[in-house]
Specification:
It is a single chain. With 135 residues, the protein is α+β, with helices and mostly antiparallel strands. The chain is built from four helices and eight strands. The chain has helices at residues 3-15, 42-45, 48-55, 116-125, and strands at residues 37-40, 56-64, 67-74, 82-85, 92-96, 98-104, 108-114, 129-134. The strands form two sheets. It has a five-stranded antiparallel β-sheet with strand order 7-6-3-2-8. The chain has a three-stranded antiparallel β-sheet with strand order 1-4-5. A hairpin with a 6-residue loop joins strand 4 (82-85) and strand 5. The N and C termini lie close together (9 Å).
Length: 135
């Protein structure tokens, strides 16, 4: 897959209103979840078209047990990409620097946040495999 193909998929899911699920929407932080989660930044959530069109810097594709996993770094005009939220909380506890895109069985294509160090650790442990930069 190329970066442009991934953007086209994002634009389609944006039209379908499925790219940003309630679990990962910062505007739904008032709904606690029983597991740790991430939410994308307000800057990303409130400007999804701009994020897709102009905000994506680099994309790395990995393979994990569920399928393809895409790590997205944002261009420097973004303060941060996402935040972690502990289980049963309505407040973020840390800023993360990556957006992840996956095509899940239930949720189809959607995005959420992650920390680049955790991604690197999972790659070193073999949880994520076959890293390639997509252009």
């Amino acid at each position: 897959m190329t970066k442009e193909e991934l953007k086209r998929i994002f634009l389609q899911t944006l039209e379908d209103k499925s790219l940003l699920t309630p679990k990962h929407d910062p505007n739904k932080l008032d709904i606690p979840w029983n597991k740790e989660r991430t939410v994308v930044s307000h800057q990303v959530a409130e400007n999804l078209f701009e994020f897709i069109d102009q905000g994506i810097d680099k994309v790395f594709e990995y393979q994990n047990k569920a399928g393809k996993y895409y790590e997205i770094s944002l261009k420097s005009n973004y303060d941060y990409a996402s935040s972690g939220v502990t289980a049963n909380s309505t407040e973020p506890f840390a800023g993360y620097d990556r957006i992840i895109a996956v095509n899940g069985k239930k949720q189809k294509w959607h995005i959420y946040g992650e920390d680049s160090q955790r991604i690197e650790d999972n790659f070193k442990k073999g949880i994520l495999k076959d890293r390639i930069e997509i252009l």
